[in-house]
User: What shape does this take?
Amino acid sequence: MKNNTPHHFRVREGDEVDLDKWPTGVKPLCASAEQCQQLREAHLTALTARQTLLYASNSYALLLIFQGMDAAGKDSAIKHVMSGVNPQGCQVYSFKQPSADELDHDFLWRTTRCLPERGRIGIFNRSYYEEVLVVRVHHELLAREGIPPALLDVKHLWQERYQSIRDHELHLTRNGTCVIKFFLHVSQEEQRKRLLKRIDDPQKNWKVGLTDTAERQLWAQYAKAYAACLSATSTQYAPWYVIPSDDKTNAQLIISQIILDALDKLPLRFPELDAQRREELLAMRHELAA
Assistant: This one.
């Protein structure tokens, strides 16, 4: 990838992903911190305007999915990229370990309940993709899901789940939900530094636990699971973007540009007034003016 345009971070449908060939760091979009701040503010202004149009149009919805290794920067990306968005038009859901009630349903059920309405932006911090990532690395989690043994064909399970996800996202697209997925690609060394910062900063101690170091030992398994997932589920209608995330500011700017480009492609417009509605507004104006 020779430049930082959003096009170069997209996984093309049918591509076989090798994460070792995708950079975790690229040339910064800005030459200085001041330029970064100016670009961030420009993105926020543009995103606010487009969100207003999305809400007023009330025809399409936008679903943003964030996945990545621990400490990849998912929380901060969501916080900074969406900081200018009206909270009334945006919903953020963080998906942790599934509850007993959620385990009694199919693996798409708990996230389907949280999909954004028309006119709104929905953000998934982790998602149904955990079922082909964490569960694939920790096979023992399958036993908790109560799948009938006759239907639990481990040999074909992951391909079947990929197919379910593709069908699900195609269904969403056909019904007006634009799906964009971000894999925040961080290096193992950068993750180590961030985990150390969390340990050393009393205000961030709560964000780190023993499971973080345990999961870190499974880095290669997770990388393999992510590569297979990205290869199988990045489609023309619901693409994956592999975001170089060793530099958080640069990653956030790339993400916000991708979101703006996606919104620009939607045929959004403010509601058109018919003659009757114009007359109603004129009557209201005369009354208020009087």
User: Anything to note?
Assistant: The chain has eleven helices and six strands. The radius of gyration is 21 Å. The chain has a mean pLDDT of 94. Strands lie at 10-11, 61-68, 90-94, 121-125, 177-185, 240-244.
